[in-house]
Design a protein that fits this description.
Blueprint lengths: L10 H16 L28 H12 L21 H13 L10 H17 L7 E5 L2 H19 L4 H4 L7 E6 L4 H9 L7 E4 L9 H10 L4 E7 L11 H11 L2 E5 L24 E5 L11 E5 L2 H8 L28 H35 L4 E3 L7 E8 L2 E2 L1 H10 L6 E5 L2 E7 L7 H22 L1
Parallel strand pairs: 2-3, 2-4, 4-5, 5-6
Antiparallel strand pairs: 1-7, 6-7, 8-9, 9-10, 9-12, 11-12
Helix pairs in contact: 1-2, 3-11, 4-11, 5-7, 5-10, 8-9, 11-13
The structure holds pyridoxal-5'-phosphate.
Organism: Erythrobacter mangrovi
Pfam families: Pyridoxal_deC
Keywords: Aminotransferase, Decarboxylase, Lyase, Pyridoxal phosphate, Transferase
Length: 469
Amino acid sequence: MSADPDCFAANEALELAAQLALEYRSGAAALDPGAAPRAEASGFDIPLPRRGREARKVIAALDAAARPGLTGSTKPGFMGWVIGGSHPAGIAADWLAATWGQNACLYDSSPAAAQAEAASAAWLLDVLDLPREASVGFTTGATMAAFTALAAARLAVLERAGHDFETKGLFGCPEVAIYISDDGHVTNYSVLRYLGFGDEQIRRIPSLADGTFDCTALEQAMRSDRVEARIVIAQAGQIMSGGFDDFTRVSALCREFGAWLHVDGAFGLWVRASRRLRHIAHNIDLADSWSVDGHKWLQIPYDCGFAIVRDQRCHRRAMAMQAGYLPDMRDTRNNADFVPELSRRARGFAVWAVMQSMGRLGIERMVEEHCNATHLLAQSLRHLPGVDVVNTVYLNQLAVAFTHEDADLTEMVASHLNATGRYFVRTADWRGRKLLRFSITCGATTDTFIRSLVGDVERFWLDLARRAA
Ligand SMILES: *Cc1c(COP(=O)(O)O)cnc(C)c1O
């Protein structure tokens, strides 16, 4: 069939996609595509046809090609990385966002997309209990959220040091010192590079056992530096331990030295949604900016993150575009004023829909349940011989080593769990040790599921240790 104007009326393709989606979501797919042979040519590897094919057939072929290579990240047993489970309300909203084909850049290009972002931005600040006057940019994820927030930071600290960044750029600017834990998330180091900062400006501060700042070392570094402009990048939810910086101390140091405080809270910032657990992130609201993901703990479908900046004017100055044909809106929101891109997907619809669907209490309950589950798993593993629970459990991250008479069996436990098809876990090297990581972030994870996981891990381990003996 040739591509003709009818191809834009191919509603059968939409119906088929909905049907395939339902089937996938309710079906029991293997969680680990690593089980599929890698070398084999994939179903995608076919010639580009000269004439176009019927959209419905293409969608059927896409589904068939993709299935063997899909990671089960929407399933409760997926604990390999910090990845959310794509809430159904978000998926449905995303379908509509694509159906409506809105360009979310300006108020005029899609008033609905601007209104959805404005409304959900206010809810986000409320749930995270951050300064209500802060501005929120809807980014692809926490990496670009940090990029956005740190661009605002760069502008502000250079301006305070008497340098007009907008006119002069980075040329001849005063020295900027960036303080980050030596165990900070790698994406922050990339972001610093995109922003024009090199290794000599980055002070890698020694970290405590949980990867967060050794505040005494931070203070010493800040005292010994003779610079006019400083940025501190702190963590809420260190990727291995789930650890939090001491924001009371870190923010006091930032105040003393006139530093901008940014918080990488990609997943950990959501602890603020829990009245019972929010003390872990006490005084985090004293920072100047925060980056947090929507697609991890909040279960928004990929991709979605938030750049939150206390000084809204500074945020806009760092990101807004000026051109004759772009209207300058004062009282309505131009989404593009808060992110690097101009044209983009209307992410606000999915955020609005997921937050409405979960509600304040639903978000709070999910965060607490995932943290409880992690504690439960830690408690049950801790008393088993040969098992070393390495981190203090603050949140939803657990790092465990399994050894039997000097033999490191951690990797073996991981492959045993993955071979069941019910679980997906990964190992990582951290501080010279191989560790199995459990990241409990999938919205579909229930209490019952966790109890069976606990039982399975115990059984596997005791069985493995017995056979190794
Ligand atoms: C995932 C993660 C990031 C990066 O976020 P993306 O959404 O992948 O861009 C940054 N910091 C931490 C702590 C993370 O867990």
